[in-house]
Each structure stands twice: as structure tokens, then as C-alpha cells.
Amino acid sequence: MHAALPQGEQEAGSIDTPTRPPRDLRRIDIHPDHWYPLAWSREVKTGHAHAVRFAGDPIVLVRTASGSVFALEDRCAHRQVPLSAGVVDGESIRCCYHGWTYDCTGRCTDIPYLGRERLPNGVRAYPCREAGGLVFVFTGDPALAATAKFPDLVSASDPAYKTRRFGQEVKCHYTFMHENLMDMNHQFLHRRQMGNMRARSLGRRRGDDWIEVDYTFAREAGKQPIGEALVFGQKRGSKPDDGHKDVMTIRTEYPYQTLKIRTKDDTMVMDLWIAYVPLDAEQRTNRTFGLLSIKRPKIPGLLDAAWPLLVWFTERIFKEDRWIVEREQEAHDRQGADHNHEVFPVINELRALLMERGVPHGAGKGAGETRRVHFIQPVQDLPAS
Ligand code: FES
């Protein structure tokens, strides 16, 4: 464990070169030995197959007649066509071409024109489970799946909160997304939505696979927009020294990220959990999956009535963030290297963490290939989180 870092650190003006990672962070692949959400549960309909991708690997999610979900590499062992074009048959999937049939372990169980006596090897199966309205797949070494940390999504199933599920494809490396959320000094980007807000870092803490930072906010000018009031649940001060005592904690606990807002009596009024899943082999595009949980106020129905406005407000913020991180990716591609000149120590710590926890580009892919074996037993029955 790392020691706690100094409190009261200010974000501006301190050039933090000693902790700056020496290599190009955008050439660091996400580590595959984690549970990643690859689809919303509602996208994987009963009796259907659903094609997804992880870092260039095609994967098919199959919801069987009984309602359970399993995950296989999305290719038939016969002529390599996608199994996602096939037909769900009870608890198995049948390839659309010659009808070879695969069960949840990836084993080929039937070839209609050969019978069951001469069955070939099957395809790779991935450990798979559902939680929080998401289908999670363990994309790395399946032997590690049972002991790997699974995300805490408790607010999303707590009736005291109302949860919005959101996300889109974003054309950038997943590390830009981590930097964007953790760096609250970019409120200037959102000035049209949120007015003039000033973030103040209260300090950061670091562990082996996590970093978190606390912020407070003060409004420097203007009134609080109503959309922001709905998200945060209470009115903010109108002068710099008039800031309320809410504390926002942003945490990257590899590979996930959270943002929680607690009031001075330690009530959590907002709980955001978010994951960025690389889609292509270069990891230049990610699919973002977010669960935004807002504590219900004492007046029944108030949050439900205001929900469309909250959705509109959060979509506007996300749209601006998406636009800017895609511009960062374009700049990186144009320059051919990471020329970022980061001055905020929190972000340099975050970059170091992402560098340490990820794998050099292509290295994880190679390891995954060598681990690719047939007839892997998927983990379908892990205890609920
Ligand atoms: Fe799949 Fe022939 S290609 S059964």
C-alpha cells in the first residue's frame, strides 16, 4: 500500500515532473484479467444471440430459453463464420451455416450430418455473469475469474436511489476517459451547462490498484442551473467562500471509475459507476457503460417528475466530454505520440496507475492467444455481488 498523500493540494501551477510516466500511455492496453461489461442485459434477448467486441476480439452473448446468458468467441469452429448469426436452440447455439451446435462451455455437441460420434473441438468460452442490468464477461485468464474483484453496484439495486443507465461509443483510448472524469479542473468546458464553478482539490489517496481525490466546489458567478440542482440535490453557494460542504470523491479502482457525492452528514446523494471497454484491437474506440444513481428526495415522485430534465442535463455534459476526448485522440494520432503536458499531480498519479496496471500494446493479446484453449468451463454460478 502507498502512504496517504498530502492534503490541501492545489491543482494549478505545480509542475509534477518526477511522477510523469516515461512512456506513451495511449500505447498501453487495458488489462484483460478483469470483469468487463460488454452489453446491457436488455440487449441480450431471450432466445437470441448478440455480437459484441472486446479489444478486437469478437464475442457472442447467448441468452438461452431458460434466460441464462453465456459467452463464446464469435466464430464457428467449422468455417469461422460468426456464431452470432446462428440460432439459439434451447440451451445451445446452432451455427447458421451447417448447424454445428455449441453448449455454454463452447463444446461442439452436435453436427447434424455426422451425428455425435465424431465431434471436433469447440470454441473458447468466457466466464460470464449479470449484475446491475449489465452482462459482464471475464476477458482474460479464466482460471482467475472466480477470485477476481467484481464491481460493487449496490446503489443500482437500492430502492432509495433512482438509476440511469447510459453510455455510447467514444472514439478515443480508454485512458482519456479516466483522465477526463478525474480532472475536475475542466469545468470551464461545461460553463454553458454549469456556469462558473471552481473546483478545489482537498487531497488524494493512492493504493496498489486505485487512486481517489476529493473535491469541493464553489460558484464564482451566476445561479445554479436547474439540471445541476437535480443531479446534486441541493443548492450551491453563490460566492467562492459560500460553497456548501458536499464532497465529491472520484476514484479509479482499476479498471473501473466511480464518482460519489456525499453531504456534510455523510449521506451519499449521487453514486456514479462507469467502465470504458475497448472495442477495437488498437483500443482507439471504447464503449462506455455508466450507472448514475441519484438519492430519492423525501417528497415522493419528485425525482421521477424531474427525471427527463436530469437526463437532458447529463446528456449535454456527456456530449461535451465526448467531443473533447475525441479531439485529444485526434491530436495524439496526428502527432504520433503522447505530447500531453500535465500539470495536475492527481492526473499524473492516475496516469502512472493506468500505466502500471495495463499491458504494453499487443502484449495482453499475445497472452490471451496462448491461453486460448477449448472446453473452458464458464463461471455461471458465482455468488451475487
Ligand atoms: Fe458453422 Fe459450418 S460454418 S456449421
Automatic annotation (TrEMBL):
Region (Disordered): 1-26
Segment forming the signal sequence: none
GO function term, MF aspect, one: oxidoreductase activity
Domain of life: Bacteria
Database matches in InterPro entries: Cholesterol_7-desaturase, Rieske_2Fe-2S, Rieske_2Fe-2S_sf, VanA_C_cat
Domain Rieske: 35-137
Coiled coil stretches, renumbered: none
Stored SUPFAM superfamilies: Bet v1-like, ISP domain
UniProt entry keywords in alphabetical sequence: 2Fe-2S, Iron, Iron-sulfur, Metal-binding, Oxidoreductase
PANTHER family tied to this protein: 3-KETOSTEROID-9-ALPHA-MONOOXYGENASE, OXYGENASE COMPONENT, IRON-SULFUR DOMAIN CONTAINING PROTEIN
Protein name (database record): Rieske (2Fe-2S) domain-containing protein
Organism: Caballeronia cordobensis (Burkholderia cordobensis)
Highest classification ranks of the organism: Bacteria, Pseudomonadati, Pseudomonadota, Betaproteobacteria, Burkholderiales
